[in-house]
Amino acid sequence: MCAARLRSTDNALQPRRESEREEMHSNHNNAYHDKDETVTVEAEGRPEDMVGLERDRRSIVLLTFLYVLQGVPLGIAASIPYLLQTRKISYRDQAVFSFVHWPFSLKLFWAPIVDSVYVFRFGRRKSWLIPTQYLIGLFMVLLSTNIHEMMGENGEQSISVSSLTAVFFALNFLAATQDIAVDGWALTMLSKRNVGWVSTCNTVGQTAGYFLGNVVFLALESTDFCNKYLRTESQSTGVVTLSSFLYIWGIIFFVSTTLVMILKHESNAMLQRDHDNQSVVSAYYQLWKIVQLPSVLSLIFILLTIKIGFAAADAVTGLKLIEEGVPREHLAMVAVPMVPIDIVLAIVITKYMSSERPLDVLLKAMPFRLVLGLGFAVFVWWAPMTKVSDGTYPLYFYAVLLLSSALHQAAVYSMYVPVMAFFAKVSDPVIGGTYMTLLNTISNLGGNWPSTVALWLVDGLTWKGCRDGHGVCSSISDCSEEPKTACTLLDGYYVESVTCFAIGVIWLKLRGRKLRELQELGPERWICRQ
Fold first, then answer.
1. What's the Rg (C-alpha) of the chain?
2. What digits encode the pLDDT tens for the residues 448-488?
């Protein structure tokens, strides 16, 4: 079998836009593959037969809180495109900023280092967790003093998209590193009988953190929302600003990290057990041996291309709705009822999905999701027609938006859950976690790069023209003469929506059969041998 085992690196990776959403749910698969390797010892030095849920309760609370901290930077980063869109930046700038979501999809490349290099006396996980969280807090505090200038809110300079991208990429890089440390610690902090709670801590914590950093922030930052629902007298700003929100969470990171450093200790027995068995080289060697398997190479190509058909719908639709005047905080609030829907969908799909042929569900759901992409384009086209005279949108518009979002979630989960089940089925059990982590990373990249490309191409595919004094938009290039004004003949979003649909249909015809063939391969075709 492949090299020596990498003991906990594989716990680290997980895959929001869609890839971020997957990040919040994939870790528990890695946890179950690794638990036979890492948690067969006593949890934090306590005899297993004396450890029940009650004894692990504090550890469960701590893990959940650490995942909450991890979700907050992700939520804040995901809210920035909404803020930028109201400032009329180009879609190419949005594409540049979309790179901030990539660290969680790339952390496989430095996870073995985080797992293998540490200060023994300080603790294997705390060696990375503590300095990383202090750095996140420091980033947030320093960023709070400069964010107004970067966002162009002082009126003296334009928005610095490159600076915003660099800063939030670094912030998410730190959050991804914190995630690696927390995932590894989670499987040794809890007793063997309670290790299943890792999935719950991860899902609940990251969801709550993302909700705080995204939905709660956008609501409290909105002047209209705060004046309408939270105040008796109108004011010119929201309850919080981006600057104050970052500063508050920076302080929370400082205080909570200090408390964890002082009050929570790692087991010396666990550290001694693994101290002489860590090898960065062996970890990377494992990964290299896995990707050389012909079946894995075929699967990698499929994972990198399967989401091209959904790129326009997933990456551009929300920004187009904001461009049409839908309040960003209202779009964010749609995520609230989606949380219980997500949970129910995951349970239902898992219950009725065949464990031997999980990808059958994916292949049935993919055409439905492709049609939904066209449906979102129609919805964006229809949105301005529903706007009332005061510029707001009626209740039935949000009802249709909510229904569309629920259908989209059903399609997303009908593809996501089978993929995770297939990963669990084919992963070599000897190195299952590392295997799962690699496949999850490739899957996330397969969602990130089409979204970035879709954002980059919107402006280039848009056909501009001039509107004359009679309101007629024509393809005249020079709009400098009065009373001509610039207008859009054909929005690049609609071009992308149709193109993505066509690519998706072609992909399904050409690669759907290969996906079925991979599903039929025996376990020996997925085993990594020297």
1. 24
2. 999 999 999 999 999 888 877 666 777 766 666 666 677 78
